[in-house]
Amino acid sequence: MAHLFRDHIEAVSPLTDEEFSYILSHFIVKKAKKHSFLIQEGDPVRYEYFVMKGCLKAYLVDGNTGKEFIYYFAAEDWWITDREAFFKQEAATINIDCLEDCELLGITLENRQKLCAESRKYEHFLLVKSNMGYISLQKRLQMMIMGSAKDRYEHFIKNYPNLYDRIPKVFIASYLGVSRETLSRLYKA
What we know:
Helix 4 (109-118) packs across helix 5 (120-146) and helix 8 (169-176) packs across helix 9. The longest helix has 27 residues, at 120-146. The protein has a domain at 2-119: Jelly Rolls. A hairpin with a 6-residue loop joins strand 4 and strand 5 (68-75). It is built from nine helices and eight strands. It has helices at residues 2-10, 17-24, 83-88, 109-118, 120-146, 149-159, 161-164, 169-176, 180-188, and strands at residues 28-32, 37-39, 48-53, 55-61, 68-75, 79-80, 95-98, 102-107.
C-alpha cells in the first residue's frame, strides 16, 4: 500500500528509495472501522491523514437542529484532518467519520514540520498540494454560491465519479446543499 503514497508524492517530487523510506518513517499506520470517528468535535487533533484505503466524510453538526453539513469527502489518495485544529493545535471543530473500513497514514504536526525543514522535495510537494487544495476549495465555494443544484450535482458526478456509488445519497445531498428528494430528482433527470 505504501506505493500509493509514494506515487502521490512522486506526482510532484520524484524520490529515491532512501528519501521515500525516510519520509514514510515519520508516519504511523492507523486502521479505522466503518462508522467510527477518526476525529470528533472537541477532541485534540494530533494527526493529518493520508487515505490509503477507504472513504471518510468531514462534517459540522448544527447544535440547534442536529443537522449535518458535509463539507468534504476523502477517499484513496486524499488527505483529511481538521486543518484548523491540526495547525493551531486546538480542539476539533468538526467530525470525521469512516464511511468504510479505512487504512490511513498519519503524521503529527511536529513530524510534518521536521520533514519540511529537512527535505526540500517534501516541502515542495506540500506546497503544490496545498495550492491545489485551495483551488479546489475556491471552486467548491463558487459552485455553492453561484451554481444551481443541477450544476453542483453535475460537477460532483464529473469530478468524483468514483465516489458516487460509494457514498450514501443522503450524504451526497448534504454535501451538495440539497435535500435527498432534490437529489433523487436530479439523479432521474
